[in-house]
Design brief:
With about 140 residues, this protein is of the alpha/beta class. It has 2 helices and 8 strands; from the N terminus they run E-H-E-E-E-E-H-E-E-E. A hairpin with a 5-residue loop joins strand 7 and strand 8 (about 120-125).
């Protein structure tokens, strides 16, 4: 019996705000599905060089809202992405008002949260970058 990874689904409260967050990470919209009968929209996002559908994040937006969002979705675990320069991406996110929950003090790993409270791990591609400020002395904020 074989198994094939398809995607990770996260529920979102504000589709455009959440989509903009994932775009800041470098993902693109691969496809979109509107379901009039079920009153929901699915947006599949992926890294540009992985548009084969094997690394998708499915953003599920319920048209009638979801009062439970954004709850603490720590039970979900996290999404993880490898990035070319963790310091540059974290700075871009911070400049856009995103809290860096676990800064990349080690030049290797950071955690942020989406507008819907989904924890996202960022990992430096290749070897860790040399420690640099302000990251090296920045403390954690909240949890991830």
């Amino acid at each position: 019996m074989g198994i094939e990874y398809l995607h990770t689904m996260v529920r979102v409260k504000d589709l455009e705000k959440s989509k903009a967050f994932y775009e800041m990470l470098g993902l693109i919209e691969r496809r979109r599905s509107e379901n009039e009968k079920g009153r929901f929209t699915l947006v599949f996002m992926c890294p540009p060089d992985q548009a084969d559908g094997k690394a998708d994040v499915e953003l599920t937006y319920n048209w009638d809202g979801d009062d439970g969002l954004p709850s603490d979705s720590r039970h979900f675990g996290h999404l993880a992405y490898r990035v070319d320069n963790i310091y540059e991406l974290c700075q871009q996110l911070m400049d856009a008002g995103i809290t860096i929950n676990r800064p990349p003090r080690d030049g290797h790993m950071a955690f942020v949260r989406s507008p819907d409270n989904v924890s996202v791990e960022l990992l430096q591609r290749g070897e860790a970058l040399p420690p640099q400020e302000p990251w090296a002395s920045m403390g954690n904020t909240g949890h991830w």
